[in-house]
Amino acid sequence: MKDKNSTEDAMLRQKAEQELKTRHGSAQSPTVEADMLKLIHELEVHEIEFEMQKEELLIATEQAKNAEEKYIELYDFAPMGYMTLSKLGEITQINFAAANLLNKDRQHLMNHRFLLFVSNDTREMFSNFLKNVFTTHNKQSCEIIISIKEEPPLYIIAEGILSTNGDDCLITLVDISNRKESEVNLIKEKEKTERSELKFKGIFNRVADAIFSYDPDTFEIIEANAATSEMYGYDKDELIGMSCLKFSAEIEESIKNANKVEQQEESIVDLRRHKKKDGTLIFVQLQGHKIFVNNKPLIFAVSHDITAIKKFEVELIKAKEHAEESDRLKTAFLANMSHEIRTPMNGILGFTNLLQEMDLNSDEQQQYLRIIEKSGHRMLNTINEIIDIAKIESGQMEVNISSVNINEILGDCYSFFLPEAVEKNIQLWQSNFLQNEESFIFTDKVKLHGIFTNLIKNAIKYTRVGLVELGYVLNSSKTELQFFVKDTGIGIPTDRQAAIFERFIQADIQDTMALQGSGLGLTISRAYIEMLGGKIWVESKENNGSTFYFTLPFNNVVALEINKNTTVVEKQNQIKGLKILIVENDFFSTQLLTFILHHIAAEIITVNSGKDAVETCKNNPDIDLVLMDIQMPEMNGYEAVRQIRKFDKKMIIIAQTAFALINDREKSIRAGCNDYITKPIVKRELEFLIQKHF
Question: Contact, 232 vs 247, CB < 8 A?
């Protein structure tokens, strides 16, 4: 049976080959050597494969769409009525709850004036309310009546606030018809107390909302129902005679509104925060009305707990903001990924075309090849960062602890970035705190090198003039190393310093400088540092440079480790005369491995399928090393290794594959491989693996 992944990749390869023939035909320039033509052909095929696969990046946009759909669903099906009015009072957006209040289909309400649904006696009040929203820019509220033919009137509390763009009014509609009717009935019953006090008290105490009356001069509570005790947590005996100002979290506003009720002798509706006896804050809708009992004025108040509604509104706002931010980040990330893949591909394809079409001398050819190589490394780095962040987020990133010379790491990074710094006319400094024999620690060498590479690359990239300095110090207790990368670059705004360590985010995703980078480097660096037991932070001022610090435990390695490393180098140079089997179905990959291994091999055998690999190992039991490709026709690498292990347990088998995803290494080891290396094959890394087993 053919492996499913192998079949799909083979089909993709076949389509890419056909597309390439369509674009360029079969003719090639006779002036280019055969191997160069094959390399160019391979690059062009991979470019077409990238084009076919780029749609996978668009999956990220679906997450933003889902968040937007959640926001729309929350808005549309909210239990409270929401709508948006223009300055002319026309409805531009409305949810189902608000449309139901108006007894109309949502589509028929769009662009209609809301004022037409307001009763004549409250129409002027609503007009003033809408005007105040646009002129004062403050939250406004009013009580209106919705009047629809052949329908009973609806009493509505309208609360409005100006939109962020200043062009619309965002309005919340709360139907208080039932409460209004209850209030009217209660007031009528109160006026009949002289004839039926017991009847009034029965209704008074059965109402679910908190109802209490108080003296407008002293604010002392005269009467309160059972719901008041339940809502605020006070016993009935505590409430009577207590100042109702104890309820308020904003006492001055409460006094002001109480005076309005006293002076205007009309209902006042207010939304505010109240305190319960235990200090818990709740949101209430408070309505006050002036009444007379025995010719003495009292304020009759109805308090309705709307805390749950307020929490829902907060969640709705957060969902909207999250959807907008998610969409912004995903859009920026996809655009950046497109740039980071297309830019190096432009360099690769552009200069390969020049190699084909122009009569170039040897120096020009070498220059173009260096540009192609540099572009390939840049694209590979982008792909590796995407793979690394996937491994980190799934918790599958491994840590390989070994003896590491930190002075050597800094020296390698200094040497690597020095030409780039010189090209930009930037000074590059290195500061070592420890002598070489003291600078060995136990950590992950690859990850430490990657951390410094990301930080130094950013420092040089964002520095126009001045210097970049890298180094470290040892703390006073000799338990922790503090590394730093300092620059005199553009700096980072204070409000963006925390965000730069999040994935997809650079200091400014709208940077007009169009600087290179996937926006994943600092996220990966932070994850590596935390895996190694340290932490990272930044100190920066905008336009005044940045210093990135990170710490690692100082586990000093004894000098014996130096001798071990020396022995390893000597051993590597002694490896000779191996009989090697290369199992690889790609011609160029086979050629590359042959070139890398010819100096240590006495004999190299090549096959291009898993089935042939098994037969070759049976017929050649003296094979020392097998380099096994995983993705092959007829029989994949995993199955081939399992078959070989049935008759040979000692043969060294190293998986070499383009697979670089989660658990691929573990799958290779479980199948029977001794080790694992990913493509593209780096000569030094492959030699290190071979030296490890021989």
Answer: yes
Higher pLDDT, 332 or 482: 482
Q: Which of 377, 343, 562 is nearest to 453 (CA)?
A: 377
Nearest to 606, CA basis, from 510, 170, 598, 683:
598
Report percent pLDDT > 70 for the chain.
74
DSSP-derived 3-state class of residue 19: helix
Q: CA–CA separation, 224 vs 210, rounded Å?
A: 8
**Does the pLDDT value for residue 99 go beyond 70?**
yes
Q: Where are the alpha helices (DSSP H) in 395-535?
A: 406-423, 445-461, 521-531
**Distance from C-alpha of 506 to C-alpha of 515, rounded to nearest angstrom:** 10
Pairing of strands 168-175, 281-293: unpaired
All residues at 6 or more sequence positions from 604 whose CB lies less than 8 Å from its CB, including other chains: 580, 581, 582, 594, 597, 598
What Rg value do the Cα atoms of the chain yield, rounded? 37
**Scanning the structure block, which residue is given the tokens 């995983």?**
630
Paired residues of 487 in beta bridges: 468, 546
Tell me how far CA of residue 555 lies from CA of 109, 399, 404, in angstroms.
72, 16, 10
The confidence score (pLDDT) of residue 508 equals: 44
Sorted by sequence, the CB contacts under 8 Å of residue 60 that are 6+ apart come out as 330, 333, 334
pLDDT digits (tens, 9 = 90+) for 480-522: 899 999 999 998 888 777 777 765 554 444 443 434 544 577 8
Could you identify the residue written with the tokens 């925390």? 498
Q: Are the beta carbons of 94 and 117 closer than 8 angstroms? A: no
10 vs 632: CA distance, rounded Å: 9
Instruction: Quote the pLDDT of residue 125.
Output: 92
User: Which of 74-88, 224-238, 495-509, 608-622 is predicted least confidently?
Assistant: 495-509
For 297-323, what is the mean pLDDT?
A: 80
Q: What is the pLDDT of residue 98?
A: 87
Least confident stretch, 94-98, 425-429, 436-440, 532-536: 436-440
Phi-psi region of 214 (alpha: psi -120 to 50; beta: other; left: phi over 0): beta
Angle formed at CA 572 by CA 567 and CA 575, multiple of 5 degrees: 125
Residue bearing tokens 């209430």 = 284
Instruction: Give the separation between CA 91 and CA 101, rounded to whole angstroms.
Output: 14
User: Model confidence over 381-392: pLDDT tens digits?
Assistant: 666 666 666 666
pLDDT at 566 over 70: no
* Of 400, 413, 409, 474, residue with least CA distance to 443: 400
Using CA atoms, how far apart are residues 508 and 336, in angstroms rounded to an integer? 12
What distance in Å separates the CA atoms of residue 467 and residue 426, rounded to the nearest whole number? 5
Closest CA to 209 of 125, 131, 121, 274: 274
What are 466's two structure tokens?
A: 């001045």
Residue 623 structure tokens: 């094979």
pTM for the full predicted model: 0.37
* Contact criterion met (CB below 8 Å) for 552 and 443: yes
Pairing status of strand 210-214 against strand 91-94: unpaired
**Exposure b/e, 621-636, CB count within 10 A at least 16 = b:** eebbbbbbbbbbebbb
Q: Give CA separation, 37 vs 1, 43, 44, 368, 371, in Å.
A: 34, 10, 11, 14, 17
Distances (CA, A) of 295 to 185, 189, 633: 20, 16, 100
Whether the pLDDT of residue 583 is over 70: the answer is yes
